[in-house]
Inverse folding.
């Protein structure tokens, strides 16, 4: 690439980053995205992440087959709220007709399931788990790029909302097709692309490789926003990714487990160039209570307690001598007793 071409790529990146947009949706400069994660990014967790500064969030990914069969669990995932906006509904599947119908249902989620409705429709071509990728959906679609493009084109043409895609570098080390694939997906009309810096076969092992994500940004044909994902765990890591690879946004996934305040930490670092003071145990207890109350409010006592266990076990995972209390937190079924346990955490470890 000539020096002049490099200059125009750099200039475009600087200008575009200041007004990161998905369609008409303005997300500001250097936005942070909450990754869609099954059994994690439910409404109560999204509520907390939004309070800590997540600029864009997604529902748990929704099965296209489940939606068109009116499966209760799939339909429930369509419900979003005004305070979450902007928000995307993410769908997955491998049958073009089912994906089109699911996208239409997601677009009309407010009428079908209630709630506020989404701002974008996102397609999951990245989930690596065997029960999804093994059927050719999620990351399994990386073996069939022509079909991936066909499905994407059909979904784009079927809905009015902006359509985005989340995917990986390729199926394995010998088929890292993302640079060429990014162009093809852009050409059929997607409005943004998120890339996780691993292949499907890597699952979540090893380190994420952002090199090819940077190559996508270097491509002068690319004009849609590129969002990088993989191994961002703190402010310095996010700052380095923005600077080194020129991405328009960063998506954070597993690092949010038990740490939804990571969005505030990263934004603090990007703005001030220094780490934010860590939350105290008392602050974490207050946050856990708020999160727990929201979970109960959204899902009722039984489900609300069950689905909070994974979060409560992570809020305090670094405390010394916490094993016995953690076990109680993840086995207690009575909401009032869970609150008492949280009060005990504040009393026992509150000076840390």
């Amino acid at each position: 690439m000539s020096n002049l071409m490099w200059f125009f790529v750099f200039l475009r990146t600087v200008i575009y980053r200041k007004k990161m947009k998905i369609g008409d949706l303005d997300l500001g400069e250097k936005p942070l995205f909450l990754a869609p994660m099954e059994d994690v990014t439910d409404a109560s967790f999204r509520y907390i992440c939004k309070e800590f500064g997540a600029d864009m969030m997604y529902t748990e990914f929704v099965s296209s087959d489940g939606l068109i069969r009116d499966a209760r669990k799939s339909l429930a995932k369509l419900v979003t709220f005004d305070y979450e906006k902007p928000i995307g509904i993410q769908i997955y599947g491998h049958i073009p007709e089912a994906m089109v119908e699911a996208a239409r249902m997601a677009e009309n989620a407010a009428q079908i399931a209630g709630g506020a409705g989404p701002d974008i429709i996102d397609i999951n071509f990245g989930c690596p788990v065997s029960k999804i990728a093994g059927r050719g959906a999620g990351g399994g679609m990386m073996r069939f790029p022509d079909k991936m493009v066909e499905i994407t084109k059909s979904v784009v043409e079927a809905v009015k909302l902006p359509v985005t895609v989340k995917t990986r570098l390729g199926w394995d080390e010998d088929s890292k097709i993302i640079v060429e694939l990014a162009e093809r997906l852009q050409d059929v009309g997607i409005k943004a692309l998120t890339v996780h810096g691993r292949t499907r076969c890597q699952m979540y092992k090893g380190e994420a490789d952002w090199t090819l994500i940077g190559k996508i940004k270097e491509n002068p044909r690319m004009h849609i926003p590129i969002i990088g994902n993989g191994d961002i765990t703190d402010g310095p890591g996010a700052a380095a990714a923005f600077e080194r690879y020129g991405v328009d946004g960063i998506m954070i996934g597993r690092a949010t487990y038990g740490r939804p305040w990571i969005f505030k930490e990263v934004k603090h670092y990007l703005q001030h160039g220094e780490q934010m003071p860590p939350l105290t145990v008392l602050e974490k207890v207050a946050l856990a209570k708020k999160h727990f109350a929201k979970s109960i409010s959204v899902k009722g006592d039984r489900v609300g307690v069950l689905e909070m266990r994974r979060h409560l076990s992570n809020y305090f995972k670094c405390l010394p001598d916490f094993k016995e209390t953690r076990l109680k937190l993840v086995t207690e079924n009575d909401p009032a007793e869970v609150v008492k346990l949280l009060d005990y955490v504040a009393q026992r470890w509150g000076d840390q």
